[in-house]
């Protein structure tokens, strides 16, 4: 970068070592801005065009990666409709443990993944894990006993631990805070149940004379599709705007500079223990951690037992597969609705989450109170239950908006995913075989969890408001007004300050989204 008099300058907080090598303390975006040409600011129309380009190329890749990972995971529930439990001799709570073993693997795998994701390109590491979990799905077709299924599910969970933290980092590195909730809804849309239901219905028509069991064909199809896609995105998915193949140099510049107002950074591969400690002592981390546990206990139960509950209402396996498809539609609609409202209703994300939690709570009450012979009422209640995905997606956006510093984001997202895994571990265990087909314990647990989510989100809201009041009179030295000089050109010195890889605690004037 050339200074005002033509001499070369370094971005702030990027001192030279004695040997001439730069010690990178700032975000990689600051290094990029310091070494690239400057361009005139974007017009609103040009910025909209750039965002649309990101939406049409980046979001579909993230969406299919997350969706196929979920399809691999939820295929267990529909495989159970076609004799998996009987063929592998899963008795009593053994099938429930087949559901719980995956999040146990995620808890174990999250720690090395969190470390490795910090040192390797995020997208490449994510896609490498995707190749791994797709291979586990393929191998499940070869299982002859329950122990081999449990081992593969454990490994699948360890590899899938990266999905939510990795994709959350990528979304936060391409979009502004207010743009993140609807993109989260798109990327994490629960279409997996629709895809899995369709595939389950399709394999249900395979004749009994076929050489393999029906559930084996399900895993072979799901695993093959997921593996092929994983290889493609390993090549194509960018880690940041700096290496997005579909952006020109000017578009890369603008894709980075428009994120300066986030104050959360994009990429920094230098591990900072101070930021890691800050993530651990931040009360926001643990409120969202407990929220993730509570909102995902119902998720874990429904993934493992949702198809079985529908089947126990008197439907055939093929009918149960079809009736399970609208659950994904309900999850997706709830995610879009909650995210759209949260994006438009500035400063009310916590309140939107609280309102969204009330819908699945009503579903729990309907299923628990209505007689099992009331098939229509039971189905309405079950579909309402799947709207839990709305508050979960908005919860993800709170972590993205309110956490700055690359190491801190990495550690916090990992802790939150462990909460997700713990919830999914507990969920199947609330469905006791002795309570079949009503599974009253499972639905009572769901109701308790939704009310717990409401309480935790209210606490998060109060904490964010309190923290904002404390810093009201402490403006940051870098503001959005510093981004453009009086002559209309970008002020790269101030922009690199915005990418100084400081945490939200370290930035005076950082405003928390409530």
UniProtKB/TrEMBL annotation:
GO terms for molecular function: transmembrane transporter activity. InterPro entries: MFS, MFS_dom, MFS_trans_sf. The chain crosses the membrane at residues 56-82, 94-111, 154-175, 187-208, 214-237, 286-310, 322-343, 350-370, 382-401, 413-431, 443-463. The keyword Membrane applies. PROSITE patterns: MFS. The keyword Nucleotide-binding does not apply. Residues 58-470 form the Major facilitator superfamily (MFS) profile domain. Residues 480-489 have a biased composition (Acidic residues). It is a multi-pass membrane protein. It is found in: Membrane. Keywords: Membrane, Transmembrane, Transmembrane helix, Transport. Pfam families: MFS_1. GO terms for cellular component: membrane. Its main location: membrane. Residues 1-22, 480-500 are annotated as: Disordered. PANTHER family: MAJOR FACILITATOR SUPERFAMILY (MFS) PROFILE DOMAIN-CONTAINING PROTEIN, PERMEASE-RELATED. This is Major facilitator superfamily (MFS) profile domain-containing protein. The lineage of its organism: Eukaryota, Fungi, Dikarya, Ascomycota, Pezizomycotina.
